[in-house]
Design goal:
Radius of gyration: 18 Å
Strand content: over 45%
Order of helices and strands: HEEEEEEHEEEEEEE
Shape: globular
CATH architecture: 3 Solenoid
CATH superfamily: Single-stranded right-handed beta-helix, Pectin lyase-like
Number of domains: 1
Helix content: under 10%
Structural class: mainly beta
Oligomer: single chain
Number of strands: 13
Number of helices: 2
Length: about 280
């Protein structure tokens, strides 16, 4: 399948391995999912979802094989699972551009804990399809190995939606290309019908108690010029570079917040004394 996707010779779309729509009170437990043609587990417009003790496997070079993607869903718990795929391990979503804005159903109350895995893309991701809004996401005790990006919050102009009250803590990452990325220029558009003036709002993102080994580049946070990211808190973070090579500097723009006990020291936009409150109240 991979070779057909790379050659762009597929004549049809690829299905999710399991997709649940407009459902509630779901438990998925003690199951192995393997070699999905697209996203593995996709609860969309669902509530009260528990996914635990699952193993998800896909080739490292298989495109778009996200592990678990809660989408416009609420009260979702993902825990005690191992994921090794060709795309994001867990990605929280809520709709794409004008379609997600019009439907207007956010993802909220998402808990992710004790998840281990590897991927050429992100360990834990928010987005990039966040047009309905994403809020109240809590991730802890995450172990990420041999991964492109440890933590990735991603959106784009034309998306709209608000990303707020995101907390990730007690994360260990090893052999990653970029430790932390929070970007406002990621992801394409489904068609030309999107509104370029529909700017996303990102505020209240707290990342704390993170340890990284062999991290090529510690992080980058690039907001949107007309919609800067606010209330970004980095606390107790150590991202160690590759031995003998070190790590590159943080890169930031159009962002405000605070940093406490971060190694290497991040960009000036997060070190102002006026931003210290972001770490005590990042909503």
């Amino acid at each position: 399948m991979v070779e057909y996707v790379e050659a762009k010779t597929l004549k049809f779309t690829r299905p999710n391995l399991i997709e649940l729509m407009n459902s509630k009170n779901i438990i998925i437990s003690n199951v192995i999912f393997q070699n999905s043609p697209f996203w593995n587990i996709h609860p969309v417009y669902c509530s009260n979802v528990v996914i635990r003790y699952v193993t998800i496997l896909a080739p490292y070079d298989s495109p778009n094989t996200d592990g678990i993607d809660p989408d416009s869903s609420s009260q979702v718990c993902i825990e005690d699972s191992y994921i090794a795929t060709g795309d994001d391990l867990v990605a929280v979503k809520s709709g794409w551009d004008e379609y997600g804005i019009q439907y207007g159903r956010k993802s909220s109350g998402i808990t992710i804990r004790r998840v281990t895995g590897s991927s050429p893309f992100a360990g834990i991701a928010i987005g990039s399809e966040t047009s309905g809004g994403v809020e109240n996401v809590f991730a802890e005790h995450i172990n990420i190995f041999n991964t492109g990006i440890g933590i990735h919050v991603k959106t784009n102009s034309g998306r709209g939606g608000t990303i707020r009250n995101i907390t990730m803590s007690n994360v260990y990452m090893e052999n990653v290309r970029t430790g932390i990325r929070i970007l406002g220029d990621v992801g394409d558009h489904p068609d030309n019908g999107y509104n370029a003036n529909a700017l996303p709002v990102v505020k209240g993102v707290t990342l704390k108690n993170i340890w990284g080994v062999n991290v090529q580049q510690p992080g980058m946070i690039h907001g949107i010029k007309d919609s800067p990211f606010r209330g970004i808190c980095l606390s107790s973070i150590n991202l160690h570079g590759v031995p003998g090579k070190g790590g590159g500097p943080w890169k930031c723009s159009d962002v405000s917040g605070s940093a406490l006990q971060v190694v290497p020291w991040p960009c000036a936009e997060l070190t102002s004394p006026h931003g210290v409150g972001s770490c005590s109240n990042s909503i």
